[in-house]
């Protein structure tokens, strides 16, 4: 309850955060209801089936965004693809946040040689150029599922979260209230969960948002060069098709513009959330007059 | 409850870059003991960086000394059995310096008190626990309805520090380790706080290790005093003796540094920095440098 009111107050105080969250919520809602929306567009038949309609139709009241080279409805494809892109973001975001948080807390709280080992390991992963490696991995792994791609991407995105959260843990663990908890017989795990974790929620949120974003764009990057997981359409694949078929010259501009616009919107929303959270929790970034 | 807290040859080194041998010695061969009965107040006086807070952390078991040992009831506190450890935790409790940082900003202040109730099994029902908390708050002259349910930032420094005293009052430890508890409080709140400590000694038989840089509070509390500089205890004895007949040059320097509120007795002489330098020469130089000379 207290958490909820605190969150609401935080959101009300930052217009950036509020805007970002609203845009994000709309996108997520569209993704969640994508099966229904797709059904509504199809009106009884599957609008994403091959040759469902005539190919290369320009935008019209029947097909708001036209159809593609196989006669699929582009609006339905985009809605479906948005949900796939958000899924990969969620999968990779959750995995890398969980891994990052665990590593960060163990390293930051325990310190000593454990910290040295873990920090060196995260450091090594951080400097590995991710994208070429992803390309190599997906070229090898034929018919990978969406989840497997998510795991692959998160292998390289958790170190960012781990690095930032660890430094926060280092500064928080010397706070007197941690000492007080220790003399009150609290165990390490209890201190981490009840004393440190709540104060790090904004950082964890930021870590989640940036790894989710990284994953979405990672997948888009793979799809654009034709190396994505099989059997799913994400925003990158629509762009890939648009480029590959020269859709722009055929008047099917929505195929190219709409996915890019959606990705930009998503990027802007997540970044606004990031900046907004930072603003709220780092008072030095707030306006001079305050609230 | 016949217990004794003893430091035997405690030394604490920290790794530091840019120092000749790669470490600084914050506490150097410190030995003293505190007795639970009769209850006493022992003050530990020294300037910033003299190692006094490190001693507090050693005594509280938050930092394992690099050499020597802290003994509780004759046993090393880092080698206690489960039940002995419980007794030690219950019996040795802190009051920290910073009343702002001692509360987790995420929670209401009640949590600190409820945690003590639960962790040390002070009450078996919620009603009894609440009663205990209210009693203790009244003992430190706080109105329970004014502080319970509030967040730390809604209370003043004095109120927050007294909540820590209420916690101590609930736990009734034999030893209070008070690390600069009044340095961030203003003058009359400070006096109030010290009076509560003295009450605790008289009424509940609590022994206090009072760590401070301020000799005037030491004078007010009375009891024994130890003067620490550069990690070593250089002088100890009853407050009156040490204050009136200081033997170590550092103690004299400290005494000269107390401002007097009497307008006829303004400071007329200045403490020269080279007086501090000279002190450096006749003591071994393993210890930390004072952060700033007292001028």
Automatic annotation (TrEMBL), chain A:
Which InterPro entries does this UniProt record tie to the protein? BP-dependent_transpt_permease, MetI-like, MetI-like_sf
Query: What PROSITE patterns would the database entry show?
Result: ABC_TM1
Which positions fall inside the ABC transmembrane type-1 domain?
82-274
Membrane-spanning residues? 21-41, 84-109, 121-140, 146-165, 200-222, 256-277
Query: What is stated as this protein's family in its record?
Result: Belongs to the binding-protein-dependent transport system permease family.
Q: Which UniProt keywords apply?
A: Cell membrane, Membrane, Transmembrane, Transmembrane helix, Transport
- Topology of the protein relative to the lipid bilayer: Multi-pass membrane protein
Which domain of life, per UniProt?
Bacteria
Question: Does the record carry Transmembrane helix as a key word?
Answer: yes
**Name used for this protein in its record:** Peptide/nickel transport system permease protein
The answer to whether UniProt assigns keyword Manganese to this entry is no
Q: Where in the cell is it found?
A: Cell membrane
* Major place of residence: membrane
Molecular-function GO terms, alphabetical? dipeptide transmembrane transporter activity
**What Gene Ontology cellular-component terms does the record carry?**
plasma membrane
Automatic annotation (TrEMBL), chain B:
Which keywords does this Swiss-Prot/TrEMBL entry list?
ATP-binding, Nucleotide-binding, Transport
| Organism domain of life | Bacteria
Q: Does the keyword Ligase apply?
A: no
Which residue range or ranges hold the ABC transporter domain?
5-255
Membrane-spanning residues where?
A: none
Q: Name one GO molecular function term.
A: ATP hydrolysis activity
Q: Biological process GO annotation list?
A: peptide transport
Q: Which residues form the signal peptide?
A: none
The identity of this protein, by name, is Peptide/nickel transport system ATP-binding protein
């Amino acid at each position: 309850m207290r958490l909820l009111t605190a969150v609401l107050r935080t959101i009300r105080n930052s217009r950036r955060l509020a805007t970002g969250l609203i845009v994000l919520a709309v996108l997520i809602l569209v993704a969640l209801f994508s099966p229904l929306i797709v059904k509504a567009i199809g009106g009884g038949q599957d609008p994403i089936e091959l040759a469902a309609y005539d190919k290369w139709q320009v935008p019209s009241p029947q097909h708001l965004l036209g159809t593609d080279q196989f006669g699929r409805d582009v609006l339905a494809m985009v809605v479906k693809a948005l949900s796939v892109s958000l899924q990969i973001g969620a999968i990779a975001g959750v995995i890398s946040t969980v891994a990052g948080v665990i590593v960060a807390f163990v390293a930051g709280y325990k310190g000593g040689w454990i910290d040295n080992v873990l920090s060196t390991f995260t450091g090594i992963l951080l400097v590995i150029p991710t994208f070429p490696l992803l390309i190599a991995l997906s070229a090898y792994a034929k018919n990978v599922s969406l989840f497997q791609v998510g795991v692959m991407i998160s292998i390289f995105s958790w170190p960012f979260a781990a690095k930032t959260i660890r430094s926060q843990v280092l500064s928080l663990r010397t706070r007197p209230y941690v000492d007080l908890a220790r003399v009150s017989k609290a165990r390490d795990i209890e201190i981490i969960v009840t004393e440190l974790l709540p104060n790090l929620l904004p950082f964890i949120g930021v870590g989640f948002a940036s790894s989710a974003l990284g994953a979405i764009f990672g997948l888009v990057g793979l799809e654009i060069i034709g190396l994505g997981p099989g059997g799913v359409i994400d925003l990158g694949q629509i762009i890939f098709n648009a480029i590959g078929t020269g859709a722009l010259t055929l008047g099917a501009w929505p195929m190219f513009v709409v996915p890019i616009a959606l990705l930009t919107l998503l990027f802007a929303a997540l970044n606004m959330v990031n900046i907004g959270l930072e603003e709220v929790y780092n008072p030095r970034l707030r306006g001079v007059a305050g609230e | 409850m016949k217990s004794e807290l003893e430091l035997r040859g405690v030394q604490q080194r920290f790794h530091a870059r840019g120092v000749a041998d790669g470490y600084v010695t914050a506490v150097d061969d410190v030995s003293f003991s505190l007795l639970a009965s009769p209850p006493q107040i022992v003050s530990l006086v020294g300037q910033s960086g003299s190692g006094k807070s490190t001693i507090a952390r050693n005594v509280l078991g938050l930092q394992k000394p690099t050499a020597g040992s802290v003994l509780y009831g004759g046993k090393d506190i880092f080698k206690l059995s489960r039940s002995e450890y419980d007794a030690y935790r219950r019996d040795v409790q802190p009051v920290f310096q910073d009343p702002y940082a001692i509360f987790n900003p995420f929670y209401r202040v009640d949590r600190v008190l409820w945690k003590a109730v639960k962790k040390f099994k002070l009450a078996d029902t919620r009603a009894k626990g609440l009663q205990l908390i209210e009693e203790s708050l009244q003992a430190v002259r706080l109105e329970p309805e004014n502080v319970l349910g509030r967040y730390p930032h809604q209370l003043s420094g004095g109120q927050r520090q007294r909540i820590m005293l209420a916690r101590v009052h609930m736990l009734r430890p034999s030893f209070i380790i008070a690390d600069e508890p009044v340095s961030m409080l203003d003058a009359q709140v400070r006096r109030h706080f010290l009076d509560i400590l003295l009450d605790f000694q008289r009424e509940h038989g609590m022994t206090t290790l009072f760590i401070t840089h301020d000799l005037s509070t030491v004078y007010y509390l009375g009891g024994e005093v130890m003067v620490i500089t550069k990690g070593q205890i250089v002088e100890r004895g009853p407050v009156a003796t040490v204050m009136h007949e200081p033997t170590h040059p550092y103690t004299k320097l400290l005494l000269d540094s107390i401002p007097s509120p009497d307008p006829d007795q303004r400071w007329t002489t200045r403490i020269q920095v080279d007086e501090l330098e000279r002190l450096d020469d006749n003591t071994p130089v393993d210890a930390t440098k004072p952060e700033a000379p007292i001028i």
